């Protein structure tokens, strides 16, 4: 019913996790579970979840560039600065995007639209691991 | 447990779908199902879901105008431009708003607040159909 | 399965409700309910839900200041003005943040990350009560 997905991130930007989530959901369900609901919850406050177009990589590039411009790394704007210039912008970007997402399951598969992929949106510069809790019902 | 709602959109802006969702939920439940959870998931990356005030139409107008100013149709800002000047802004607007929403059911009805309505927020100019998957538990 | 949480807000800003939610979830579950999903739904259109860092209060301060700058109380921008200069900005801020959140339950506890707290984000100036519907499955 619940599993944790660990995602290696290579730095700031959108990481496509559609296959990891889809494989995990398959391993958690039997072929009799044709309908259900998959809820993802990211256990961090400087990375978030996004469903977006996964066809043209330029969409991910433009999303990242646009959000960077909206929430600049400009220390003069922030009082929470001791964790580095990318930390407070990362919290703001997380607040503007999703910490949890719920995706129905139809015919034993995530009911994503034709062009929809699931992304982990890393808002900090570091490489590392992020954890997503996956709940099925 | 799962149904798909097809919504005709007349163009960019907020479309009130409260009655459609509410009617669908009634058709999916019996009078014994007094409590539950209704999850909506929109299968698109350039339209989103919103719960907002449905009393004064000026609220919808101002929301639309504000978001348009925040995310302008200015091709110089974007590299993903081949699908038209409204496409990349539509992806950004979707990223800033909700792809899934979960609304509790109380006394066999959606537990919306007094002034809350459910809207499909179309971010592209075209007329057409959008699909929302509705899951009940 | 469903309870309503009433939260007293002292005015605009982030109110930490982690303990209230956690206590309510404990009262709704038995020690046998080790896994589940807790969904929060706020019944208002000018306040929202947020999961954010609850360690350094400067994070909350900067989030509030940043969003205020993005969505100013400037009546010239809005046509919906009869409910006061803070009303339309409050609707916009709500649209950019979450009306519902789903948090998995693991080992009979909310599966929050180490630094994650749950906040009610009040976007209006007034003191008063806000209602959150809490659904458990």
How would you sum up the global shape of chain A? Answer: elongated
Largest interface: A-C, 28 and 31 residues
**In total, how many domains does the architecture of chain A comprise?**
1
CATH architectural designation of chain A: Sandwich
CATH C-level class of chain A is Mainly Beta
Roughly how much helix do the residues of chain A carry, as a percent range?
25-40%
Note the run of SSEs of chain A as H and E: EEHEEHHEEEE
Output the CATH homologous superfamily of chain A: YjbQ-like
Any overview of this molecule?
Three copies of one chain form a homotrimer. With about 140 residues, chain A is an alpha+beta fold. The first copy, chain A, has a single domain (about 1-135), classed as YjbQ-like (Jelly Rolls), CATH 2.60.120.460. The first copy, chain A, has three helices and eight strands; from the N terminus they run ββαββααββββ. Chain A has helices at about 20-30, 55-70, 85-95; strands at about 1-10, 15, 35-40, 45-55, 100-105, 110, 115-120, 130-135. Chain A is elongated, with a radius of gyration of 16 Å. The model of chain A has no long low-confidence stretch (mean pLDDT about 95). The interface between A and B is medium-sized, with 30 and 28 residues.
């Amino acid at each position: 019913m619940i599993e944790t997905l660990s995602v290696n991130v290579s730095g700031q930007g959108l990481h496509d996790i559609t296959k990891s989530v889809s494989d995990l959901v398959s391993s958690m369900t039997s072929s009799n579970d044709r309908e259900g609901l998959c809820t993802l919850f990211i256990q961090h406050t400087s990375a978030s979840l996004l469903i977006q177009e996964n066809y043209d990589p330029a969409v991910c590039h433009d999303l990242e560039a646009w959000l960077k411009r909206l929430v600049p790394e400009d220390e003069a704007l922030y009082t929470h600065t001791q964790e580095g210039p990318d930390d407070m912008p990362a919290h703001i970007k997380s607040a503007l995007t999703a910490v949890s997402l719920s995706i129905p399951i139809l015919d034993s598969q995530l009911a994503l639209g034709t062009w929809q992929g699931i992304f982990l949106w890393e808002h900090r510069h570091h490489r590392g691991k992020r954890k997503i809790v996956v709940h099925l019902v």
